[in-house]
Amino acid sequence: MAIAGEATTALFGAWRLAHLDPAGMRCFNISVTGFWRSFFAAVLVAPLFIMLLSVAYPRLETPPPLIRFAAAESIGYVIAWVAYPLMMAWITRRLDCWDRYIGYIVAYNWAAVLQNAIFIPVHIAWMTGTVPAEAGFLLWLVVFGAILVYLWFIARTALGLTPLGASGIVALDILLSLLVSSITKGLH
Question: How far apart are alpha carbons 92 and 39 in whole angstroms?
Answer without folding.
Answer: 19
